[in-house]
Amino acid sequence: MRWWVVLFLWSCSLTAAELPHYDPEAQPDQELATALAEARQGGRKVLLLFGSEWCQDCRSLNRRLMQAPLKHTLADAVVVVHVDVGNWDRNQDFAARYDHPEARGIPALALLDADGRTLMVTRAGELANVSSMGNDALNDWFKSRLRQFSRRGPETAGSR
Questions:
Q1: Model pTM score
Q2: HSE toward the beta carbon, residue 149, CA cutoff 13 A
Q3: Enclosing domain of residue 103
């Protein structure tokens, strides 16, 4: 009977380790440079996700990034970079470059083209209640934004 418990705990630790997360030690400038190079090579965009490990909605979004249908929607479209904002006390200089998308709630995001130009930024806490969104609704939200910015350039209002 105990081997079941050990097997269960082991499988949970593997799942948690595989999930993307907000690393307080990560260097967003370095991760962004790597992501931009990867995006240029693969014809993709860069998705900056601002959040923190304490945030339930951030963890919910991270789980969904690894599951269908969102995993398939984003796989060939974006390179994801997680930016840890802590309790709004980490990486604030980095977030300021994108007009602080996290100011109205996390998770928040900025979508960049492969040259680093801002295409869109969440400004009104659009994803702050992501854990209450259904998988299809969340996937549709991302599909809509990706479609919108595959047809035209950066947003005109508030673009940097």
A1: 0.82
A2: 25
A3: 21-151
| Residue 91, domain member (yes or no) | yes
Give the number of domains in the chain: 1
Q: What is the pLDDT of residues 83-120, one digit of tens each?
A: 999 999 999 999 999 999 999 999 999 999 999 999 99
Report yes or no on 160 lying in a domain: no
Contact by Cβ (8 Å): 112, 77: no
CATH number at residue 144: 3.40.30.10
Coil vs helix vs strand at 56: helix
Question: 30 exposed, middle or buried (CB, 10 Å; 0-12, 13-18, 19+)?
Answer: exposed
* pLDDT tens-place string over residues 46-86: 999 999 999 999 999 999 999 999 999 999 999 999 999 99
| pLDDT band with cut points at 50, 70 and 90 for residue 18 | low
Contact 75, 67 (CB under 8 A): no
Q: Is residue 15 part of a domain?
A: no
Contact 69, 134 (CB under 8 A): no
